[in-house]
Amino acid sequence: MSLQKLPPVNAYSACAAVGAATLAYLGLKTLSALRYHLHSSKLQRYRHGSEPWALVTGASDGIGLAFVNELAARGFNVILHGRNETKLQKILADLEPKYKVKFKLLVLDAGTPADAKFDETILSAVKGLNLTVLIHNVAGSGDAQVEMPMFDQMTGPQFDGWINCNCRFQTQLTRLLLPILIKNKPGLMIFVSSAVTEMTAPGVSVYTSTKFYVEGLAKALQLELKMNGHDVEVKSLTVGMVATASSGRHEKDISFTMPSPRDLARAALGKVGVGGVRITPYFGHWLQFGFMTSLPSWLSEMMIISLVRKAQDQMAKRN
Ligand SMILES: NC(=O)c1ccc[n+]([C@@H]2O[C@H](COP(=O)([O-])OP(=O)(O)OC[C@H]3O[C@@H](n4cnc5c(N)ncnc54)[C@H](OP(=O)(O)O)[C@@H]3O)[C@@H](O)[C@H]2O)c1
């Protein structure tokens, strides 16, 4: 049939074809989301040998403490890392009667560069333990007590605070503990990243960059481990807002898009063995990011800038 003899494509059939393709695309997306969010966790794969241990960094509050509780409830002994020994001791006294597992403390400031004692402190905390899980949760600004500063408002020590606490510490800890996870195989290493790598915002430029760093590290490590035949699973969690006290949010703020720390930790452990390296474990965040990233960039940028302006106004009123 020559081209001239083909029936004309009218507007109606073109719209129907676009509609059918869109529905098929959304259907496939929904199916893969359901498969991903309903998949059962492989966490118990890492509870092997006599007395398996997990180490959680930044474990004295928020999401870190939630990971400690969720791991202990699933039969893991846990080393809690933090910088405030008195606070950690109080937490220990609260945890011990609740669970049938053991706990240990690792007191170390993640915001200062590694000194001569760094290796010794870490290695003696894990000495003789069957460490199979490492959760890189800690993040902070070191000594930089500033809220949403623009890049040009930050000082040298503030940059160092963020980078030390969110990148250097994770890297040095991985240098020391990855060989142990490899030896005690199978092992699991989770990095807690942030939604800022999905939706970059003003006022958190250095924090955002540090989260891209841990994501990059997680992806590269996973490939190197795979290439060398090591049985260590690496995950990087893309996490949206969570109702932690330090972020100024409380129980009353918990909603479908802002889970409690326990809900977030439960969702994260529920995704072990599922998906690739970079995952969004909490369903409400997954929907939220899906919506935001489907918007044209000019619109999402406009929305984010307006949200940051509102947050800055609120902070100015509070101070
Ligand atoms: N909350 C959110 O909305 C949210 C969203 C996305 C991603 N995240 C990520 O989730 C992780 C945990 O956040 P979070 O909200 O649970 O934080 P958090 O409530 O502030 O808890 C942070 C933990 O890290 C410890 N820590 C901070 N600086 C430290 C240092 N220099 N040395 C040793 N320990 C230190 C804190 O100890 P102290 O008790 O002594 O302060 C605390 O145990 C972070 O990686 C964060 O980037 C959080």
UniProtKB/TrEMBL annotation:
Membrane-crossing residue ranges in chain numbering: 286-308
UniProt keyword Magnesium, yes or no: no
Similarity field: Belongs to the short-chain dehydrogenases/reductases (SDR) family.
Primary localization class, coarse: endoplasmic reticulum
UniProt name for this protein: NAD(P)-binding protein
Annotated PANTHER family: RH59310P (PTHR43899:SF13)
Subcellular location: Endoplasmic reticulum
InterPro entries: NAD(P)-bd_dom_sf, Sc_DH/Rdtase_CS, SDR_fam, VLCFA-Steroid_DH
Keywords per UniProt: Membrane, NADP, Oxidoreductase, Transmembrane, Transmembrane helix
GO MF entries: oxidoreductase activity
Entry's Gene Ontology cellular component terms: endoplasmic reticulum
